[in-house]
Hints:
This protein has helices spanning 12-42, 45-51, and strands at 56-57, 66-73, 77-80, 85-96, 104-112, 118-121, 127-129, 134-139, 151-158, 166-175, 178-185, 187-188. The chain is an alpha+beta fold. The chain starts with 11 loop residues before the first helix and ends in a 7-residue tail after the last strand.
Amino acid sequence: MEDARGGCPNGKVGSRKRTAYRNRFILALIVCLAHPLASAAEQGGAEIEQKFANSLTVIPNENLSVSGGFYVPAYSSVSMSEGKLRVDFSVTLSVHNASETKPLIVKRIDYFDTSGNRVQAYLKAPVALKPLATIEIFVPTNDVRGGTGANFIVDWAAAGEIAEPVVEALMVGGVGNAHYAFISQGRPARTIGKN
């Protein structure tokens, strides 16, 4: 005989149902919380090619005689109040082709943490940006793998002389009612010294 709750008089079946529902709820919650980090970890060349298809063109057949690289400081997290408070930021890395006439080949976009360990490689193969086009990489606020000293390395090439690309990171975040946004410019990363 069942009681009014749909279980047996001793409550064992009802208790099992509640446990099963609770376990399913916990599993769904874990999946939802893990999803943003999984999405960030899966972002790669295929996503860039789909998301920025209108910014891309075919890689030229000519010899890529010009190349360079950028080091871009990024701040996934910032320590505040004498290190007692940490504020997390989203990071948007933008790579702009500053040339009006030539495609820019982006060969590498890698993300590193405070310790200098590579966190993620965003390109599986080089992509070519149309003149004056842009691609972006987005690191969400809850992805704090980079830490307070995160950075990107962006390598590029071109078939002949070209305007130097513009590479920068935009950080956006806040704590309480205070909101912050700031930009970090990429710095050319070339070896200086004798050839």
